[in-house]
Write a structure and sequence with these properties.
The structure is a homodimer of 336-residue chains.
Chain A: H1 4-11, H2 15-22, H3 30-43, H4 49-56, E1 61-66, H5 77-92, E2 96-99, H6 111-117, E3 122-127, H7 133-139, E4 145-148, E5 156-160, H8 162-175, E6 181-185, H9 190-205, E7 215-217, H10 223-234, E8 242-244, H11 248-260, E9 270-275, H12 278-282, E10 289-291, H13 294-310, E11 319-322, E12 325-327
Parallel strand pairs in A: 1-2, 1-3, 3-4, 4-5, 5-11, 6-7, 6-8, 8-9, 9-10
Antiparallel strand pairs in A: 10-12
Helix pairs in contact in A: 1-2, 1-3, 2-3, 5-13, 8-9, 10-11
The first copy, chain A, binds a DNA duplex (16 and 16 nucleotides) through helix 2 and helix 4.
Amino acid sequence: MVKLKDIADTLNVSVGTVSKALRHSHEISDEVTDLIIRTANEMGYIANSSARNLKTNKSYNIGVVFVDKSRAGLGHDYFSTMLNSIRDELSIHGYDFTFVSNVIGENRLSYLNHARYRRCDGVIIVTADFKDQEITELVESEIPVVTIDHVFNNRTAILSDNQEGLRTIVHHLHENGHSKIAFIHGEDTSVTEQRIASFYQACEELGIKVPKDYIKDALYHFPKQAGLKTRELLALKDRPTCIIYPDDYAYMGGLTEIEKHGLKIPEDISVVGYDGIFLSRILRPMLTTYVQNSVEIGKQAVLRLIEQIEKPRSFMAKQVKIGGNLQVGQTVKKIG
Amino acid sequence: MVKLKDIADTLNVSVGTVSKALRHSHEISDEVTDLIIRTANEMGYIANSSARNLKTNKSYNIGVVFVDKSRAGLGHDYFSTMLNSIRDELSIHGYDFTFVSNVIGENRLSYLNHARYRRCDGVIIVTADFKDQEITELVESEIPVVTIDHVFNNRTAILSDNQEGLRTIVHHLHENGHSKIAFIHGEDTSVTEQRIASFYQACEELGIKVPKDYIKDALYHFPKQAGLKTRELLALKDRPTCIIYPDDYAYMGGLTEIEKHGLKIPEDISVVGYDGIFLSRILRPMLTTYVQNSVEIGKQAVLRLIEQIEKPRSFMAKQVKIGGNLQVGQTVKKIG
DNA sequence: TTGTAGGCGTTATCAC
DNA sequence: GTGATAACGCCTACAA
C-alpha cells in the first residue's frame, strides 16, 4: 500500500505538502498540486481511512440498525427498497454504512457500543424493537440518530404517512360505494396505532359505521393468519363488502381463503392492500394498494442525518412525514 | 470517549499494561487484569477500531459487492436471505461488513480502491456484472475474495448447484409422466449456461426430445416477459405439457398469461419455478420449485473467506457447490 | 509556498 | 509482571 510518505519521497517534497495537495489546499501551488496528484494516481495511492479517521475523528461511516427477528425485514420490499435508497444516498455524500448489531464475535456489544467501536458518525434505525432498552440507550446517546417509522423524544424521525394512507384508502372505498369496510390490521406498533386511528377517523368523517367484528387483529407479513381472519370475516352474517389488509403479503393469504370460498375478486368481495410491493403490480387482478414511498423515506433519513452530523449547531430535530400514493388496481368494485 | 490512557491514569499503571490486560495477555497478573477489566467496564471503555486497525493492519471489516442494476437484487428473496446469512455469520466471527460500491462522494473509486480505502480484510462478491473490468481487477487483487454463483480462475467461489437443480426438476417431471417440457431460461450468465446444459443433459438421459421452440430466452425476475414467452409456448401446435420458468417471480407472469387463456394449473398445464421464494409457499396452488439454499451459500462464503484471511498459508481456492431441494407443490400434474 | 513536528489511540518491542 | 517508547498513516498548526 503506497502512502503519503512514498509519494513525498519520490518527489522530494514533504508529506505535509503531499497531504495538502491531495486535498486541493490553496496553500500549495497549482503546478506542485498537479504533479503530486498525477504521481499519486500513477503510484496507485489510496488513503487509509483508519488513519484519517483516527486523526480527524470522522469516519464517514454510518451505522444502520436493521433487526428483523422474523427474518421478514430484508426480504420485504418496503425495507429492501429503503435500504437501497439509503445506500445510494449515503454514497452520493461520501458515506459508507455498516450494520450495527448487538453481537460481534464472542463478546456481546450493545448497539451503542458497536456504533462507538466503529466510530460511526451517525446511526439510522430502520427496524428494531423500539421497546428494547438498548435501542433507547442508543437513541439517547451522543451519536446523531434518525429513526424510521417511530418517534423518539427530541430525535429526528422519518415517517411513512400512515394517517394519509388509511385515509386515502377509506375515501377511495367510499367513493366506490363501499360502507361495509373491514380492516385487518398488524401487530401492536406505533405504525399500527396510527393506521387504526386514521381508519376510524376517516370512517367517522364519511358517516361509515364500523361494527366491532369488522376489525381484526393480525400480524404483518403473515399470509396464513390474514387468511384465518378473512375466514372469520366471510363467516359473518353481515359480511363486509371490502377488506383492508395489513400489507400486500398478508393479502396473499386472504386471496387464497377467498378463492376457497368460491368468491371472486372484486365481483364478490373487494380488497385493498398496503405497501405496493413488486408483486402487487404483477398479479392479476392487480391489487389496489397504498404505495409507501420507501425510496424517499430512505433518502430523507440520510439527508436529515447528514445535516445533523455536518451542521450540528443549526440542526433541529423534527418529524418528516412522507406521503405515498394509491395504486388503483382492479380489486375494488364500484357498487351501489 | 474514554481511552486506554484514562484507565491507566486512574489506576496508576501504564497504557501498555492496560492494553495487554484487556486482551487477556498472560504477561499480566490475574489480579491486575481483573482490576483493569472491571475499571474499564465501569468507565465505559470502548476500543477505537480505527486506531487498532491502523496499528494491526486488520479491520475486521468485510466488503460486500452487491450491484443490482435492475433494483431486483435486495428485493429478491434469494439475495436478501443470503445477505442476512452473511451478516449473521460474519457477526459470529467478529466481523462487520460494508457495501463496496464504485462511487463514493464526488470522486469515483473503483471497487478495489473502495475496498482498500476501507481496509477491508476481504470481499464477498454477491452480485455484480462479472464482465466488468473493475470486478476482474478486484478479483485479481491482493485482497481475499470469494464470489457467489460465478467462478474466477484460482479464486474461491460458492455456487448454487444449478446442475443438480435442473436435473432434479427434469427427473421429477419425467417421473410424473411429462415428456413435452418447455424451458424458459434467464439471460446469459454462467448460471444460465449451467442450467441450460443440465436441462439438455437430463432430457437426453431420460430420452426426452426437446424441440427447439420449447426453449425460450427471457430475463430473470421479469414476469411480463415470461408471460410473453408463455404465450408463445401456448400458441404452439404441439404444446408442452409443462413449463419450467427462470424463477418464481417470472412464473407469476406466466400464471397470468395461462389464466388469460382459460387454462388451469396443473390440470391443463404444469409449471415449475426456481428459487423457492416466500410467496411460492403462500400462493395456491403451491408452486413446485427448486429451493436454493441461500442461507448455506451465504454461510459458506463467509467461512471460506475467513479461512482465507486468517490462514492464508494453508488456504486453497476451491469451488463449493451448495445443493438445494425440490419443493413439491401442486403445480405438476401426474399424467400418462 | 513549503517543511516540520506533534499527536490521534492502539499495539508491540524492549528494558527493567 | 510492568513500564517506557516507538511505530501505524494521516492531518494541521506553526515555523521557515
